[in-house]
Every structure is written in structure tokens, then in C-alpha cells.
From TrEMBL, chains A, B:
Name of the featured protein: Recombination protein RecR
HAMAP family referenced in this protein's UniProt entry, alphabetically: RecR
Zinc-finger listed as a keyword: yes
Gene3D superfamilies: 3.30.60.80, 3.40.1360.10, 6.10.250.240, RecR Domain 1
Task performed by this protein: May play a role in DNA repair. It seems to be involved in an RecBC-independent recombinational process of DNA repair. It may act with RecF and RecO.
Keyword flag Heme: no
Domain annotation Toprim: ranges: 81-176
Matching PROSITE patterns: RECR, TOPRIM
Homology family: Belongs to the RecR family.
Keyword terms, alphabetized: DNA damage, DNA recombination, DNA repair, Metal-binding, Zinc, Zinc-finger
Length: 201, 201
């Protein structure tokens, strides 16, 4: 389009490749940066260029890290007998923010999805079994999402860990904190009733 | 946070400086790029770094351009007797996409906003008057938004152009195309009734 200078057009095209960013948002972001001092676009450019260079996967839990082992696996204050299994490094970050978990992690890097050709071999499941085989782990907390593929992955892990000398647990499902039950969906409400907890526990 | 490698943290922080991008979206974008081949982040970095270097303001209409005059001002097929006044270069891009306008543009680079200290001198209004003074313009189409500051800016321009030898027009306001009038807001509906058009015109 005649109205858009090529350098601007190129940035808009590149922004659009990011997930959840359509043409309108891409245009808005690019025009915003163009109106701001050049240093702001340059800073973002430098952060992007430096991203992959310094980050690798922790060889123990497979999260993104600049060190190996990562800061969590290398922290002696963490409880290494408890391992939380998550889908993605982003899930680890969300759980860390709660401050409610002091064990270690294991990142699967995906969920089982036969339709997309993602079976157990595409995930870090063999590595999880190897960690358990080496011993020293009492409990494996399955913290995959409560989506259909997340539940299927948890069920699969539950099954193959059946014989392992560890306790296998799952994140509790139920009404979100602070939610009026009028607004809870029926599946969540049914699950909350089935897994109801004794007061004071 | 221990869980986030510094290079990732830095990119998340930089993404958050963009308008409409909160911490969750910034984290999602950064993790997405980290999972993708390094070349994708690098391409985006290069587009960002190149952005300001090649783009300047057209000295005639003040849009962003790699040439001066810009491609539109320099196009002899455009009708230079008709000038469309818009708030931002992004508005020009939206109007160009419609293909319904074949005149030239004038970018104000903002709207009047006394609360934010933006008066006529902060916008390219003096330059607009100078273009009109030089002659050759028959019509000025005020295409600022139909927001309160956009309307105020249009009213101000209408007033100072009152004596100028040009016809001053405004974008029509009314029911959006394809909208059921049940869903139109009452101000728009009232305006559409007031400015009703004779069928077949």
C-alpha cells in the first residue's frame, strides 16, 4: 500500500507473526514506536536479539535458564523430594509467582495431542521417568491444565507412574476463589461437589 | 523472580512498555519467541532497529515516509485540490485502505486537549493554514474522530477556516454499515436522524 513506508510495513508484518497480534494491533504498535524516541525501538530490538543467545534448557527440569542447572534446581533450600510436572516454562513462572510451591519442577514442553502427532516421545516424559528411577523423589504433582489435552496427559502420566515408588497428585479443581457460584460453569461446579472437602482440613 | 532468566525478564519488561500489552501478554509473546527458531526474534529485532533510520515526516502532509515528499503527495494522479485532515498517520492508512479517497492529506499529529497542554501550536495547524494560503485547494475534509477531542478539534478548525477560500466538510456520522439499528447507541442514532439523507442521492 502506497500509504505505508516499507520499513514500517516490514515491522507491521513481523509483529503480525506473533500470536494474538492481528493487523490492527501490529499497526498500532509500530506507529506507537515510530512516534516514540528511536531509543525505545532500539532497546526492544536489543532484547530480542539477545534472547536466544544466553538462554538454554536446564538439563534437569528443562525450563529456560541462563545457567545449568537452573536457579531453582540449583537452590539447596528447595524440596527436591517433590516434583511438579507442568506443560510449559510459562506455567512454572505462574506457579512460582504464587509462592505456594517450594519443590522442583519438570517441564514436559507440551501436552499429548495425537491429532498433531505429539505422543509421549515428543514430550520430556522419558526424562521424567529417569529422574524418578534415580530416586530421591517422594511425590509427583501433575500440574497440567484442566483442559482436555492437559487432563489426557495427566491421565497418561498417572497410568505409567502407577508402579513407580512415588505418590502421584493432581492440582485440585473447583470454584475459583472469590467467584460467585452463580457464574461457575456446570462442569467445574460438578467437580467441586464431587471433590468437596471437609471444613477445617 | 528466580524463575525467569534475566534475558527473558528484560524482553518481557520491554514488551510491557508497548501500549495495551500487560505482563501476561508480554510473557506470552516472549515465551513464544523463545520456543521459535532464533531467526524469528532476530528478524523482528532488525525491523525494529531499522524503523527510525529510514522514516521521516513528509514536509508537505507530515505523514511518516521514507521519501520527501511522500508517495501520496508526490503522486500526480491524486487530486491536490482536496485535502483530508486527520489526527495521526494511522488514520491516513485506514482511509487509504478504503480506496474511497483520492485527494491529499494533512496530518495534525494529535488533537486539541487543553487538559494535557495540547493547544493549536502543538499540532500542525499553522502548516495547514500555510498550505491553504498558498492556494490550489478547494476543499478541506475534516476527518478527525467523532470523539469529544476529535469533534472539538474539528470545530476549532471549522472556525479558523471560516474566512478561508475553501469549502470545509466533515466525515458523515451515522449508523455503521450492516448494523442492526437495535444495537446503535442513541447519540449515533439521533445524529443519523438529524442528518438523514434523501434516498437516491
Amino acid at each position: 500500500m502506497q500509504a505505508v513506508p516499507p520499513a514500517l510495513e516490514r515491522l507491521i508484518t513481523d509483529f503480525q507473526k506473533l500470536p494474538g497480534i492481528g493487523q490492527k494491533t501490529a499497526t498500532r504498535l509500530a506507529l506507537y514506536l515510530l512516534r516514540r524516541p528511536a531509543a525505545e525501538a532500539r532497546t526492544l530490538a536489543e532484547s530480542l536479539a539477545a534472547l536466544h543467545g544466553s538462554i538454554q534448557l536446564c538439563s534437569r527440569c528443562f525450563t529456560f535458564s541462563e545457567t545449568d542447572p537452573c536457579a531453582i534446581c540449583g537452590d539447596p533450600r528447595r524440596n527436591e523430594r517433590l516434583v511438579c510436572v507442568v506443560e510449559e516454562p510459562g506455567d512454572l513462572m505462574v506457579i512460582e509467582k504464587t509462592g505456594a510451591f517450594r519443590g522442583l519442577y519438570h517441564i514436559l514442553h507440551g501436552v499429548l495431542s495425537p491429532m498433531d502427532g505429539i505422543g509421549p516421545d515428543e514430550l520430556k516424559i522419558r526424562e521424567l521417568l529417569e529422574r524418578i528411577r534415580q530416586g530421591g523423589i517422594d511425590e509427583v504433582l501433575l500440574a497440567t491444565s484442566s483442559t482436555v489435552p492437559g487432563e489426557a496427559t495427566a491421565s497418561y502420566l498417572m497410568e505409567i507412574l502407577h508402579q513407580a515408588p512415588v505418590r502421584v497428585t493432581r492440582l485440585a479443581c473447583g470454584i475459583p476463589m472469590g467467584m460467585d457460584i452463580k457464574y461457575a460453569d456446570e462442569h467445574t461446579l460438578a467437580r467441586a461437589i464431587e471433590t468437596r472437602q471437609r471444613m477445617g482440613e
